[in-house]
Amino acid sequence: MVFHISARFLILLVMMFAMGCDSRHSLQKHLKEYQERMANVLDVESQDRLTISLPPYPSLRDLKQNIPVTTIKLFEFYNLKHCELYSLVAERNTSLGNLQLPSTRYIYERHLIDALKQCLIDTTDSKVQERLENWQRTKNQQLPMVWADLIQLSSEMKQGFSSNFGLIEGNKQDGLSQSKETLTYLLNINQKKPINSAELEQHLQNLLNNPLPAKLWLSQLTLAQHLNRSTKWLWQHTEGLQCPGVGTEKKIEYLINVFQQFFIEKIQPIASQINHYQYQLNPIFEKMAAHPKLSPSFKEYINNFNQQGFGNYQVAMQQHIHFWQGLFKRCNIKPGKR
Fold it and tell me: How many CB atoms lie within 10 A of CB 93?
């Protein structure tokens, strides 16, 4: 168990180091160059660097489900020797579910429910059958809460939804298909029979290795904050500029070249992929945000990005494009013509 946790921690450290040294963060680089080139053209100071990060993940204490411990008396335990249930209960020190990693706990509970069902078939003692039926009913009622803990408390899910390790690149390395498959699997895992521990752990590992939801939300936040500030800055510094062809003023012509080279050719293609990912993952996020067993703070966290965050990003893009459309119209310039 110690090795398992340490390995996950090591992966996180490697990811943080790799992201810190990686020059492939194209979006951040393009936004920075876009702003610096515009400042050079206008001969003004470039804006200070923005520090952007996702809000903290909700407190695990608030997210944890209140699941009563189901206990079994010693004499009841010995009455189960003819069933596989006996060895499962023995693993948990005669308690039907103790503290475990969320994924381990979920797998254990699924196996326990299956074993209870089989033990009922193999048992002839009516009193034992009655106790088994009570346990089975309790465990079936608790399974959605155990699933909620799997979704909300797993370290892989926390990293997948709140890490600040990377941005969308706009290519296959973003891993949309794999991330969509993983999130769909986790959302619908209660319907999967039989349950496979290795498959579950692999999906969680995929989310840890490539936290696409967090990268998507951080990219939207990054674009929104950069573009909101740049749009306001452009209005301030271009108001008195003359259009090309009037006297010797060339700054607007140079600005449009920068807009074409960096925003249209580099930033907008990544934004287009961000929109695509959002529309592909939105149904999954909406199902999570509406699930009755997930905690309000977790659902609010998702909604803040999936609805409000995406909306803010869209408005920032629209307002920035609106500025340039107004400039093109004022100077009677056709978009794409430099």
Answer: 7
- CB–CB of 97/108 below 8 Å? yes
Cα–chain-centroid distance for residue 52? 16
**Cβ atoms of 122 and 128 closer than 8 Å:** no
DSSP state for residue 134 in the 8-state scheme: H
CB-neighbour burial class of residue 268 (10 A; exposed 0-12, middle 13-18, buried 19+): middle
Sign of CA dihedral 13, 17, 19, 24: negative
* Residue 80, burial from CB neighbour count under 10 angstroms (0-12, 13-18, 19+): buried
Tell me the pTM.
0.87
Q: Measured on CA atoms in the order 314, 36, 268, 282, is the torsion positive or negative? A: negative
pLDDT tens-place string over residues 281-311 = 999 999 999 999 999 999 999 999 999 999 9
Burial class (CB in 10 A: 0-12, 13-18, 19+), 275: middle
pLDDT in tens, 208-243: 999 999 999 999 999 999 999 999 999 999 988 888
